[in-house]
Design a protein that fits this description.
397 residues, alpha/beta, six-stranded parallel beta sheet, two-stranded antiparallel sheet, 17 helices, 12 strands, elongated
Length: 397
């Protein structure tokens, strides 16, 4: 089976999440992603917790389907290896702060001289230019500065960060999208270009509807009352606690028939559909949900044709029958850890689906393999290893 990005080679100098998750998307769809890492230590994401048998689960989550080449890129000989690889590669990806790639000798204009078709993709906190380009960028800061945190949490409470590193993940998807768009454009222009993706921009774009309201009316978007999904959602767009202490989400926008079905499902008398409707509808619903366990609410809602909305703990997510049907867990055989479960592929293609072909690599796992592909002899590789230009991690003890 030919995958969408078969034949595309990505030199991946990224680390942590924003960069590696983005390049992993291309790897999942067939790109040959060569992860260039520091000798022995690898990229800093390898040291993240939690770890099993010395292997970071966070690193494994972001680096499947990649090969690892360990180099000391401060050495001229290592730079020459990268330049040789650039000559026949398609993408060079990084998420260092602006200016770092240039200082390393891998800036766009340098690499463009070697290969005019190269796509130089940079993910950062704020962009490759502008007043904040020297600032450290990070997920929490982007949530704060991009307006997302101010809208998250409860009315009269403090701004709250999301439950995961959402700016990093959205930034990774924007990074992948930018690279894909540049690859498509190159088919028409036969020339590469720079891709500038950053956390601040993607967080701002994540609430584009609210932005339109603010920009055109000047209104602010307040945090919602306790339990309500979003500002303006009201009691019909909220989360309620059930008898067993678990929670259930009620979708808003229900018409009168929907209100009547909710009333029947929760044994509410008189029906919420009867006018005039109670002013304390939220309180009525709170008491009603408390009469049933979450699973009982789920069954009663389904019986009355209402959308299910169980609030799952993370472990419960992967027990849901739809999640199982969607193949949202895949397994790989890791050389250090053994069998490892990873998140499945969220986007499904009917003819060229993403595949799991390689487990996340150990540092320098494919050193000899990769270098030989680029014309280095075994003797040359050994010489580079003795000079500590290339790592020896893939050599048997």
């Amino acid at each position: 089976m030919t995958l969408p990005y078969d034949g595309i080679r990505v030199l991946d100098l990224t680390q942590l999440e924003q960069g590696p998750s983005g390049t992993q998307v291309l790897a999942d769809f067939g790109a040959d992603v060569i992860k260039i890492e520091r000798i022995d230590l690898g990229e800093i994401g390898r040291r993240q917790l939690p770890q099993i048998r010395g292997t970071s689960l966070w690193f494994m989550a972001n680096n499947r389907n990649k090969r690892s080449l360990s180099l000391d890129i401060a050495k001229p000989e290592a730079k020459e290896i990268v330049y040789r690889m650039v000559a026949t590669s398609d993408v060079v990806a990084s998420n260092f702060r602006p200016g770092v790639m240039e200082r390393l000798g891998f800036g766009y204009h340098k690499l463009e001289e070697i290969n005019p078709r190269i796509i130089w993709a940079a993910a950062s906190g704020y962009g490759q230019s502008g007043p904040y380009q020297e600032r450290i960028g990070q997920d929490l800061l982007a949530q704060a500065m991009g307006g997302l945190m101010a809208m998250t949490g409860e009315q009269d409470g403090p701004p709250v960060a999301t439950g995961t590193y959402i700016a990093d993940y959205l930034g990774a998807m924007a990074f992948a999208q930018g690279i894909m768009a540049a690859l498509a454009a190159r088919e028409k222009t036969n020339h590469g270009q720079m891709v500038d993706s950053n956390l601040l921009n993607i967080v701002i774009a994540s609430h584009l509807q609210e932005n339109a309201a603010v920009l055109n009316t000047g209104q602010e978007v307040p945090r919602p009352p306790p339990g309500v999904g979003h500002a303006g959602g009201g009691p019909l767009y909220a989360v309620y606690e059930c008898k067993d202490g678990k929670h259930y989400a009620l979708m808003g926008g229900l018409i009168d028939d929907g209100l009547d079905r909710v009333s029947r499902a929760l044994a509410i008398q008189p029906s919420l559909a009867v006018k005039p409707r109670p002013k304390d509808m939220g309180e009525t619903l709170r008491h009603a949900f408390k009469k049933f366990t979450r699973d009982e609410v789920e069954r009663r809602f389904c019986d009355h044709g209402l959308p299910p909305g169980s609030v799952y703990e993370l472990g419960e997510v992967f027990e849901d029958p739809q999640v199982i049907h969607n193949d949202m867990v895949v397994e790989a055989e890791h050389p250090a850890y053994g069998r490892v479960k990873l998140t499945g592929f969220p986007v499904k293609l009917s003819h060229t689906p993403a595949t799991l072909r390689m487990s996340p690599p150990t540092v320098g796992e494919q050193n000899e393999e990769v270098l030989q592909e680029f014309g280095y002899s075994v003797d040359e590789i050994r010489s580079l290893q003795r000079a500590e230009v290339v790592g020896c991690e893939d050599q048997a003890d």
